[in-house]
Amino acid sequence: MASPSNAKPKTHGLRAVPVDLDQNLLTTRRLTLDLAAPLTDEDQTVQAFPDASPTKWHLAHTSWFFETFVLQPFLSGYRIFDPHYNYCFNSYYEAQGARHPRPARGLLSRPSAADVRSYRAHVDAGLAQLFASGQAHEPQIAYLLEVGLNHEQQHQELLLTDILSLFGSNPLRPAYRETPFAVSAQDTRPLRWISFGGGLYTIGHAEPVFAYDNESPPHRVFVNPFKLADRLVTNGEWQEFMRDGGYDTHQHWLADGWAKIHEDNWRAPAYWEEQDGVWHQMTLYGLAPVDPAAPVSHVSFYEADAYARWTGKRLPTEFEWEIAASSVAVEGNMLNSGALRPLPAKTSTDMMLSQIFGDVWEWTQSAYAPYPGYRPAEGAIGEYNGKFMCSEQVLRGASCVTPDSHARRTYRNFFYPHQRWQFCGLRLADEA
To answer: Which of 118, 336, 341, 364 suits a disulfide with 318, CB 3.0-4.6 Å?
Structure first.
């Protein structure tokens, strides 16, 4: 994304400026504050582990994004809130200079949470002024605002998953939401298989609406006939894997995964703990019994791959997933539903895919790599996705804490294969 000293970014030409961009952006900004509202200022300062970030940092970083890439270069007379914040709240943009180390974000006791809220108010006032000036609907500025809006939605999801990691590390096992947690009374729906024909398919984003650069350009891929499970793998099915020695049988595991589970002594998904012979898991509602009918979550790619091998099946490729999702509505148990946890698949007699969007991100067997013809954008925005296209795996779909308007069929999420603090699960695939 362009800084004042760089060339302004080029837009892709296909996108029209959304007429409700200002309202959507300000609504998104308010939602971030609403998600932080149940937390104390102390909660917002602490970082559970190096991959996570404090809530206060998320609130500041998303504001820094707009200040640095939109307000400074485009709003005449804009006053930088604090020049030190560029160092404190830059994430990974080398073009923006030195920054505070990610593993040490929890040491930023200053600025205070109150200071960060003032910073957000200052940036929001600048954004309102930009919209009032009419500049916000110029194509280049509108594109940057759309990137910033979607970037903030990503951090809304991260804010909740990072709080779960923090509260899961707290011996009091506090709850983010005090609503009673009820384990589903329904049984796991029998797994069924949906078949798809092989052939040439077009993959990637080609619509005149916003998408990240890693979803383009559209290109043709050939796939063999395949089939997907109609629902996600459940906690109860995962417990069968555990009882059958899944974490002790090297034949199920990739070499790096086998090394990782021994290095970190993994015996169950993240946030699971056994009490008096009963498995519990940490949730945003506090510690609760594992719901056997709900989708398993907080498993790494290594674990997902091992489970699939144990069943004699495999994980889908990201292309298979996108082909299958093309006939499914982009809706499901996401942030707007308010559940804040994966829910069991609904009972249905229809031979249709369920839980494609929402509940958990789905690991695929596809490495995160550029599509044919991909070129990073000019300026700092080229650092947003492209430089991470190495040693990571693609996940598809959405989770129970993904903002609903952030999900789409072509969305490519990506994490390292050992990471599991996000709501990540799996769906089985097989040859047709």
So the answer is: 364
Q: What is the pLDDT of residues 238-286, one digit of tens each?
A: 999 999 999 999 999 999 999 999 999 999 999 999 999 999 999 999 9
Tell me the average pLDDT across 198-223: 94
Between CA 229 and CA 237 the distance in angstroms is 13
Nearest-angstrom CA–CA distance, 212 and 385: 8
Structure tokens at 26: 């300000």
3-state secondary structure 151-193: HHHHHHHHHHHHHHHHHHCCCCCCCCCCCCCCCCCCCCCCCCE
pLDDT level of residue 70 (50, 70, 90 thresholds): very high
Provide φ and ψ at 136, rounded to 5°: -60, -20
Answer for the pair 322, 355: CB distance below 8 angstroms, yes or no: no
Structure tokens given for 129: 């002024």
For 363, phi then psi, to 5°, come to -65, 140
Q: How many angstroms separate the first and last alpha carbons of the chain?
A: 44
222 strand-pairing partners: 200
Helix (H) or strand (E) holding 63, with range, is helix 55-66
Q: Give domain 193-431's CATH superfamily.
A: paralog of FGE (formylglycine-generating enzyme) (3.90.1580.10)
The reply to whether the predicted model has a pTM over 0.85 is yes
Where in the chain are the domains? Answer: 21-168, 193-431
For 147, counting Cβ atoms within 10 Å of its Cβ (0-12 exposed, 13-18 middle, 19+ buried), the class is: buried
Which runs of consecutive H residues, i.e. helices, occur in 244-389? 255-263, 301-311, 318-325
Q: How far apart are CA 329 and CA 209, in angstroms?
A: 17
| Amino acid type, 273 | E
